[in-house]
Amino acid sequence: MNMKLDQTDKKILFSLLKNSRMPVQQIAKETHLSREIAQYRMKKLEESGIIKGYVTRINQSFFCQGIASLFLKVSNMTPQKHKDILLFLQNHESINWIGELCGNYDITLSLLYHTPKDLSEKVSSIANFIGKNLIEQQLAIYIAELKFDRSGIIKKAAHHPNAPTVFNNQKRTFDHDDIIILSILSENARAKTVDIAQKTSVDEDAIRLRIKKLQKTQVITGYTIILDPTVLGYESYYLLLSIENLNKELISKIKYYAANAPNVVFCVQTAGKHNVILNILAQDRREFAKLLSELRTAFPEIRNYEINLGMQEHKEVFVPFSKRHS
Fold it and tell me: Is 241 contained in some domain?
């Protein structure tokens, strides 16, 4: 069921997309509501399924050498096998995002890795678990994330990007309490400091100071929400592009295009069969066809492409932490 948003709902969502850890009182101030009404509206947005979660933007380069997407085509699965595969992927300590697809592939995921050997072993473990049901797999290694921003579907405006996120390991040591703080915030950006303190060896004041330090050192780069586009009347399309002569100038052009396309929520440069992956939201197939036509006109260098319809997402965090830490 599609839900229509009024301007107040949009203002609340836009505020939370910018900072999902924002206190209710501040949200109320930004939207000119009472605290009680702001809290009531947020709860309604959660109950409707529009807000699926509150997540923390954690700088992935502190926790891995790189990120890769894996696309899987499977067949002849019983309902139980399908359930088992999704559960295995959700509990995998390196996988930070999972989506089900309809198209050339059935499942896609992204995972963090430390070395090429580590990546190979993780991909093999996934393939071995799926077993004979796995028909095909495609790996795409992230080179640079050019855009990740859902606010365009709430407020039709250009995205003002930061420098592209480049995946290279940064040296940093975290103690046990830092890891607990990050693991809790990774899945619930609105977690209260008093509740976090109960799971660590330090008090609430120390938790506040640690969070501030993690923010100052850019380990935590922000807080946002997970939106369900289907509740808002959007279909999700994953577009895998093969682009000829992908040089720096063309990458800059793609980044500019994505930044000025509100319907493009994710864009990443990759190495593999395809060298650019886009996630595009459209209200129906007709709108998607129009967006695709505009993209192909803007980039005649597109040699080939694959389209997959996003069906459902099962996991989304920036960095997956072991469940024993949360």
Answer: yes
